[in-house]
Design a protein that fits this description.
Elements: H1 8-20, H2 23-30, H3 34-48, E1 53-56, E2 59-62, H4 64-90, E3 96-102, H5 104-121, E4 125-131, E5 145-147, H6 173-179, H7 184-189, H8 196-205
Parallel strand pairs: 3-4, 3-5
Antiparallel strand pairs: 1-2
Length: 206
């Protein structure tokens, strides 16, 4: 059996969708429309002759064939990355790396969609991202940069604000109705979800 020669954009769409398990997130990473990513994955499955995802509402989950394909695609991406590193080294361009720790939600919604454009401008820099909410020791863990929510400054570190963040409490309709006209103390006694420090900041500014 002769295997089909697959366009690289089909594999890029497949890989992004497999990693995010969501076509909208994949489209943001690739700077494409949702429908473009969906069409590329459909074209990939048509050319292969079988599905690579199980559709579960808005989620796309790899089936056995898709998982096998992803392993091969990841190996190919690693080899391509090594080839690019070797090419830049042969051309005399110094390959640099940047190790970044970032909050998972910030990575998905803000950082990842912009990485493609940034890398196009700085191809000599390899970025390693750890998406985590834990407290990290930048020096001990060899991080070059941290993207965190907070006011700063932090002792021993240089910090630069990116933008202001608006926080808005939300509640179920029933609880919101109970709190209408009540003082802030009533809200403070309600079950509060989320980070305690964020609530402290919100109450301080309210």
């Amino acid at each position: 059996m002769r295997l089909p020669r697959l366009p690289l954009q089909y594999l890029a769409a497949f890989r992004a969708a497999a990693l995010h398990q969501n076509l909208r997130a994949a489209s943001e990473e690739l700077n494409l429309t949702h429908s473009a990513v969906s069409q590329q994955i459909r074209a990939l499955e048509t050319q292969l002759g079988f599905d690579v995802f199980d559709r579960q509402g808005r989620r796309v989950v790899l089936n056995a064939a898709g998982a096998a394909l992803l392993r091969g695609v990841e190996r190919a991406y690693q080899e391509l990355d090594q080839g690019l590193r070797a090419a830049t080294a042969a051309h005399g361009i110094e390959q640099r790396s940047l190790r970044v720790t970032v909050l998972p939600s910030f990575a998905q919604r803000w950082l990842l969609p912009r990485l493609g454009r940034w890398h196009a401008r700085h191809p000599e820099v390899t970025i390693e991202i750890e998406a985590t909410a834990r407290l990290v020791d930048l020096e001990r863990e060899k991080f070059d940069l941290a993207l965190r929510q907070g006011l700063g400054p932090w002792p021993g570190l240089d910090s630069e604000p990116l933008f202001d963040l608006s926080m808005l409490p939300v509640a179920s309709p029933a609880l919101a109705h109970q709190l209408i006209g009540q003082p802030l103390e009533a809200l403070a006694q309600a079950p509060l979800l989320g980070d305690a420090s964020q609530w402290e900041d919100w109450f301080a500014q309210a």
